[in-house]
Specification:
The protein has 6 helices and 7 strands, in the order βαααββαβαβαββ. The protein is an alpha+beta fold. Bound molecules: coenzyme A (COA). It holds the Pfam family Acetyltransf_8.
């Protein structure tokens, strides 16, 4: 799907079976340790669908087909995030953060393209956000390299509890500033 046209729409309950099928894949579950039973997906995504969570869950569509998921919130919306991020580096007020996965076709540049398109959308839709910050476990090279290819830079590193207990705790803090501001 090179040169795909990217669009994003909020996850709805009709998407739950698709969303559940992604972390069920071992290559995704390796890094994204969500459970995928119907009850677990309702627990993890239902509040966002209902607008009862600050986090937003977005379905990423490449040429109209759903291929991935991007979660977006302000870093400060969640105390645990703010503490983890602040332990690794500066967190500008109103900075936002992302989490993401590709449901298929990993390792062929799609993740980089999806993130580039989502970040461009963030600058337009989140005018208050001066920067996007992401923490990534150092072992997840595809994830932090995809961010670097979008323009993020590693601005801090240190130990955080990994999602996957098998991983070394070393994490990177990656940052991309709003164009024309920093
Ligand atoms: C993270 C993710 C979105 C990246 O998207 P992707 O399409 O696989 O990555 P890209 O093809 O755009 O490649 C990005 C970089 O990772 C590298 N890469 C991709 N797959 C790799 C692999 N299996 N092993 C090592 N490096 C890999 C690419 O070579 C490229 O780096 P380079 O510029 O140094 O060559 C995707 O792999 C994914 O969904 N992973 C599972 C869920 C996950 O890890 N989410 C992130 C949690 S922080």
């Amino acid at each position: 799907m090179p040169d795909a046209v990217w669009s994003f729409r909020r996850v709805t309950r009709e998407d739950f079976p698709l969303v559940a099928s992604w972390p069920a894949q071992p290559e995704v579950h390796r890094w994204w340790q969500h459970e995928w039973s119907a009850a677990a997906v309702e627990r993890d995504f239902g509040a966002s669908v209902d607008g009862a969570e600050p986090n937003e869950d977005w379905l990423a569509l490449g040429d109209g087909s759903p291929v991935g998921l991007v979660q977006c919130s302000a870093v400060a919306d969640y105390e645990e995030n703010l503490a983890d991020f602040s332990a690794l580096g500066e967190v500008p007020p109103r900075a936002i953060t992302l989490d993401y996965l590709l449901g298929e076709t990993r390792g062929q540049g799609l993740g980089t393209d999806m993130l580039r398109a989502f970040v461009a959308r963030c600058w337009a839709e989140r005018p208050e956000a001066p920067a996007v910050l992401v923490t990534v476990v150092a072992a997840n090279r595809p994830s932090w390299r995809a961010l670097e290819r979008v323009g993020f830079r590693i601005v801090g590193e240190g130990d955080c509890e990994p999602d996957n207990p098998d991983d070394d705790p070393l994490h990177y803090l990656l940052r991309l500033d709003r164009p024309g501001v920093a």
